């Protein structure tokens, strides 16, 4: 199957290894990966910071870049949720009826990585090996907007050597929230501190999630504390054959 | 007694900073919200038709709001026919003036009050005090707040920020009838409050209440509560004055089937409410012989005019959204600068008051948009959606506007994004000294930009494939 990768602007710019991992993983499973070069950003930061006018321009750019694709994968629960839950709604609210129709037609073909693997490709054992103790943080938009449920956990349970440990209060927000982390830095840091304590209580070596933005926030605090816990995107663990 | 007001409250992040550093407050809140959260989840899980009930609650409220004028007029007609008097208040000042005039007309200088969000919103107690009328709060937590010259910090548990030891000290200092050997045992504290309040109930001639629901086609008003203080206030005095937001309306008594299930399970995690008082106008020889219903607008009509924002008017004040909110649990209720704290306050206050003040402009941003509030809301208010909607209306700092405009410009073209990435990649040696805001670097390391973006890697290794 030919799958178009929406790498997301954050991964593209700061975490290219996650994009490379998606490519390696899907090719290992026998699929072809395309990278539509006109892609940029889903518009979430602009929408959530109060700039819907800028965001709708990015909806238009995204739709133009991907509407010819049969299946699109995004290694970010948050960006996939933005496309699926917001693009058509935002276009309609901005009076862009035609764009809303195009976005609504594209939305069901856009999948977060674990959705693509489990629901579309029907695979949970991706042939990975990752001999480490791992805790999984279900990021808010993956959990509550996309309703990924246990799909990422089912994938992780099949990874050779991986010791999956339960994260206490896993469903609690880590406190990132995009510009929330800057605008409400004290509350954000307090939320992060509790998430970090929960992670450390598990004895995990690696914290995994389906969103690098949340991992950048939690990982930034884990690193600052020299906690000895590192973070890894789900794609990187699933691509690993070490 | 000096009552604090909400005028001049600082922006949310500033007020929250103090709360985050208050270890006792953090402990009280984490414990209280954690307990009630687990109990709510269990109470909701008992019903296998919860999703249908929630959808019905939303639909009934939406229908009522769509025909609000019709149902309000019907309510006025039925209340009047049953011997009550209906008053219309455009704003807080009008509502307070009406209540003050009504109390004055009775010649009384004291009133007992059932906990009411609407009168907190209008600052009624302060207005009555100015007119020489003393209002006695009779809900235990509300009494604690009043005795401490404090502000409520939770819709359902207004004194959630106080623990037992603090309450004991407060009773000893401010409640003349409190025994010298008062302990911080909850039963002992409740008993002291009961004795203090009983005297007020027996002497009060006028009561002021809020309302949880009003039934348009019968003119019936309902108050649900847990302590029985409401029942006392609603039945013993000669005159009852009820102040109610215009959105509290339901078309028929049948609609209560839905709401009397949704509300107790969402708020106190009970299957049924301990005290549900309902009255229709005046009944000769039984209960108050004069009944006044003050219908309060105070920004609700303006809120109703916004197709996205109006869903906030479905709120039944259950407080489930507060109890699951990670921001509320750390910032506490006072930081929200209104009687409506937590997620519902963040979308309601800026709408009913307008985004004019510092705190109201900051409230739509007081959320990580985690969505836990929407998930538990019994009338399915999409709080994150309204927050995002209000963020667009909030005033922006010019520097932010410029930065977001520049980011939008760069992100709107793949070529411009690639150029920006190349620049970041070349400057990566300096990344540790880059001007990342201190708000980030205070507690977190900064990721170093990679030498090569994903798209550059793709072009170098894959292009043409
Ligand atoms: S917004 Fe919903 S959850 Fe929050 S208090 Fe109102 S009804 Fe309850």
From TrEMBL, chain A:
InterPro entries: Cys_rich_dom (IPR004017). Residues 3-83, 134-218 form the Cysteine-rich domain. This is (Fe-S)-binding protein.
From TrEMBL, chain B:
The keyword Iron applies. Keywords: 4Fe-4S, Electron transport, Iron, Iron-sulfur, Metal-binding, Repeat, Transport. Transmembrane segments: none annotated. It comes from the Bacteria. The keyword DNA-binding does not apply. SUPFAM superfamilies: 4Fe-4S ferredoxins, NagB/RpiA/CoA transferase-like. Pfam families: Fer4_8 (PF13183), LUD_dom (PF02589), LutB_C (PF11870). Residues 305-335 form the 4Fe-4S ferredoxin-type domain. PANTHER family: LACTATE UTILIZATION PROTEIN B (PTHR47153:SF2). This is Lactate utilization protein. It comes from Actinomadura parmotrematis.
